[in-house]
Amino acid sequence: MLKSVAGRQVQFNPLRLPSLPVRSRRIGLRTMPSIGAKKAVVCPSGEQIVNGGFETGDLTGWTATGNITVVGNLFPQEGTYWAGIYDASLGLTGSLEQDFANTIPYECFGPTSVFKLYVAAGLQISPPVGGRVTIRIRYTDDTETIIEWERTAGNPGWNEIDLKSYIELGKTVKGLTLDLNAQNTKNAVEVDGCTCNV
């Protein structure tokens, strides 16, 4: 290769260039997250509801307001006890609330997980009359999913409600609230078998 130097052409030889001082510097590399990469989901294990069957004989684990009591040996769904409005003449409404010890991401509710409860109304009187339970699945972003159950002639006895099927995609569950309304001073409204096992 020819190169012009001061008006004349000379043969260019890259091997005959004057040596220059070499400076080197180590550059620290930073790891950048991949675009669209997701955080690993951490799932708690085991039962997340404390005293979901009320088998302590009291409301341990729950915050109760209004006319809520624990009743034993009177048609429980399982075990010995249930909670709810037993004597509606003392008040038609009450609620039970529990924040779980661990929050539970949507992805943790897989095929083997269980999130359900049982509700009933009017089991102690004949003929049974109406009653309502409003179930609130509460999320960490302070939103909730609301499920309404009402006693009708077609759902006597205990009714299983599969809460897992109501969880909103991408949400993280932090707790559960149950609002009970007897609707009639001769009525009772029952809750039992609350479980969230992931």
Q: What does the model show?
A:
The structure is a single chain. With 198 residues, this protein is mainly β. 0% of the residues lie in helices and 40% in strands. A hairpin with a 4-residue loop joins β8 (132-139) and β9.
Topology order in helix (H) and strand (E) letters: EEEEEEEEEEEE
How confident is the prediction overall: mean pLDDT? 85
- Uncertain segments are 1-6, 17-33
Structural class label: mainly beta
* Radius of gyration of CA atoms, rounded to a whole number: 33 Å
> In percent, how much strand structure appears in the residues?
35-45%
Instruction: Please bin the fraction of helical residues.
Output: under 10%
Let me know the largest β-sheet. 5 strands, antiparallel
Please tally the β strands and state the result: 12
CATH first level of the domain at 63-197: which class? Mainly Beta
Largest sheet, spatial ordering of strands: 3-6-11-8-9
In short:
This protein is an all-beta fold and 198 residues long.
Question: Characteristics of this structure?
Answer:
5-stranded antiparallel sheet, mainly beta, 40% strand, single chain, disordered N terminus, Jelly Rolls
